[in-house]
Specification:
Structural class: mainly alpha
CATH superfamily: Ferritin, core subunit, four-helix bundle
Number of domains: 1
Strand content: under 5%
Number of helices: 11
CATH topology: Ferritin
Low-confidence stretches: none
Shape: globular
CATH architecture: Up-down Bundle
Distance between the termini: 37 Å
Mean pLDDT: 87
Radius of gyration: 19 Å
Helix content: 55-70%
Oligomer: single chain
Number of strands: 0
CATH class: Mainly Alpha
Length: about 290
């Protein structure tokens, strides 16, 4: 990767989640991850668009790894004794499918997986279960490979076609704008007395700072994002969206069947977690209800 674990880390000062008291909160957090890992499975479609055999082989391995990460979060739900809930619209937006190979590598792999990786690091630091932390750390090492792949492919694409930079940077800026709005939404709802959650605004700011550094090292931009004026940022974003919306609203996409990201909550694979939650509910143990 272009950044080290230390550069992507955040000091939570020993703060931990309480598995019992924070069950609802942990279930909400894990549900956002579950959605992200399910969208990751769809990386298989990009095998057809891979520029070479090695890239296709990497994507095939990644698809299996994303399925393994779903297993990890199924274990996480069992650990807290809760069921998955509906994903937040912001997470759904940030996980939306890319329009082409270059966008997939830059947005979903380098940036998106980079977001995921930093939150993985945070969960490991803030849970008090060695076995689950080890499973999450193994997932981290795989995610690091995904981020590295996205970074390398993006730099190769920019070297082949420097004109891509403007469009991809615009989409990056849009994603970061959404993350900043999400941070404000969280800040209004955060428990300022909670040992972990009171640090979340600073933590999300750290994610933005780290992404800024990654963009510079990939050659996507040659100056910090703080030096971009509002008008300059607006031009980049609107230019990038013009092509994306043209593809999004093409008439043939209206007839697309539901994908796994729309049906996974009803999938038999999650039956055991749902059943466990029903047992806990029948026993009078508080459990999150499906949205």
């Amino acid at each position: 990767m272009l950044l080290t674990r230390e550069e992507m880390g955040f000091d939570f000062q020993g703060a931990k989640f309480d598995r019992v008291k924070d069950r609802d909160l942990l279930a909400w957090i894990a549900s956002q991850f579950l959605y992200g890992e399910v969208t990751g499975i769809q990386v298989g479609k990009w095998i057809l668009h891979a520029p070479d055999v090695e890239s296709a082989k990497f994507l095939a391995r990644q698809c299996i790894e994303e399925l393994q990460h779903v297993d990890v979060f199924v274990e996480f739900f069992k650990w807290i004794g809760a069921r998955p809930v509906k994903v937040h619209p912001v997470v759904k937006l940030l996980s939306s499918e890319s329009s082409d190979w270059e966008e997939h590598c830059a947005l979903e792999m380098a940036q998106g997986e980079g977001f995921v990786l930093m939150i993985f690091y945070a969960i490991i630091a803030c849970i008090d279960d060695e076995k689950l932390a080890k499973r999450l750390d193994a997932a981290c090492r795989q995610e690091e490979g995904h981020v590295d792949f996205g970074e390398q492919q993006t730099m190769k694409a920019l070297a082949r076609n420097p004109k891509l930079r403007k469009r991809l940077l615009g989409l990056h800026l849009l994603s970061l704008w959404v993350v900043k709005r999400f941070e404000k939404w969280i800040r209004r709802r955060v428990d300022k007395d909670h040992p972990v959650m009171r640090m979340i605004p600073d933590y999300l700011a750290r994610i933005v700072q780290t992404t800024d550094l990654r963009l510079q090292r990939m050659g996507m931009t040659h100056k910090p994002l703080a030096e971009f004026g509002r008008l300059e940022t607006f031009r980049y974003i609107t230019g990038a969206l013009a092509r994306k919306f043209a593809r999004k609203f093409a008439f043939w996409r209206w007839f697309r069947k539901d994908r796994l990201t729309e049906t996974y909550m009803r999938d038999e694979y999650l039956h055991e977690v749902m059943q466990l939650a029903e047992v806990r509910n029948a026993a009078g143990i508080p459990v999150i209800k499906a949205a």
